[in-house]
Amino acid sequence: MDGNTQVTPEVETLQPQRPSLKASLRNPRVRLGLAVAAALLVLLLLFRFMADRAAYVSTSDARIAADMIAVSTDISGKITSQRVSAGDMVKAGDVLYTIDDREAAYTLAEYDAEANRLRAEIAREEARIGLASSKAGSEVAARRAGTQSASASVEAARSNLETAERDFDRTQGLFDRGLVPQSALDQSRNALDTARQALLRAEADRDSARAEQRTASIQGEEVRLIELDLGVLRASLQQAEARVDAQRVVLEQHTIRAPIDGVIDELFYDTGEHSLRGFRVALMHDPDAVWVSANIKETDIRKIVPGADVRVKADSHPGTKITGRVTKIHNATLAEAALMPNPNANGVFTKITQRITVRIDLDDPGLRLRPGTMVTVRIRKQAAKDTA
Question: What is the pTM (predicted TM-score) of this model?
Fold first, then answer.
């Protein structure tokens, strides 16, 4: 060896040896224990799966549903303002849109003026009726009194005539016996003629008074004519008021309001656009009135009854416990309700399990579940004694 070379003695460090994992797995006892544990775990999972299948009908073909209210307009016109935005919470009666209502307002003012004119005419005719009735009543009463007075004058003149006739007869007898002069007889004859003329005049006055009384009674018919005219005016007023009420409805239709308490999902018009009658302007729903629409296989539908308890898992709220109950089971499959049926035109038939929609009303979860979001449902099967 070279003299400059130093030899370093190798020092062997002794460390305790641990059995490796592979070595442990080679141990028959360890391998047996692991196999038993795995078998027990598989059996437990299989038992839970079978117990769940025996107690529940499960499906992932389910989603949150709600009554989607399409708000439409009854008139066409220019949108003058948009009061809400998509996502806003509104109360029933809140204004969503306003439509230009100037023409409707002018028409309402015109109809109102016509109704006011008819009311004024009715008031005038009612005043005329009062005056005509008072005048006719007074005139008839006066003419009746004049007729009675003329009749009394006739009776007085007839009585005077009878007296004059008796006086003339007595004077004539005295004159024939030469007891009175010719002048007395002439005076008596003159008195008789005067009494006769007075009776004729009194009868003429009575006939004239009766004629005037009839004339006064005929004038009273003017009141009836005015009342007929008044009836026509009142009918015209009712027609005018109906037009006013109808126009108020038209004017109110220019303000589009929310029909329910809820949330605005979508708006279809902006300010300045022209709305069309019958077209929807907004879409909304009540977030407190949502339910689950689940599509159940036809092979499982017999195991479900209304009132069955349901467990729901919402994809939007993982880990949240949501419960509900079945309230309605539809009587037709989804395929029967499809707008576009799928006829078998090529003669090749493939049997596909159909699905039937089930409605599930939720217990109050305190959550804002959005329509259209997906959920998983587990519906408890009916008791065996209820199965037909």
Answer: 0.60
Which CATH class for the 55-68+289-386 domain?
mainly beta
Worst-scoring range by mean pLDDT, 167-176, 205-214, 259-268, 372-381? 205-214
Q: Note the pLDDT tens digit of each residue in 98-134.
A: 999 999 999 999 999 999 999 999 988 888 877 776 6
Residue 214 CA to residue 210 CA, distance in Å, equals: 6
Kindly list the domain boundaries of the chain, sorted by start residue.
55-68+289-386, 69-103+251-284, 104-244
Q: Torsions phi, psi of 89, nearest 5?
A: -90, 135
Give the type of residue at 119.
R
Question: What CATH number has the domain spanning 69-103+251-284?
Answer: 2.40.50.100
CA 83 to mean position of chain CA atoms: 23
Neighbours of 62 (CB within 10 A): 24
CATH number among 1.10.287, 1.10.3470, 1.25.40, 2.60.40, domain 104-244 = 1.10.287
CA separation for the pair 190, 349 (Å, rounded): 138
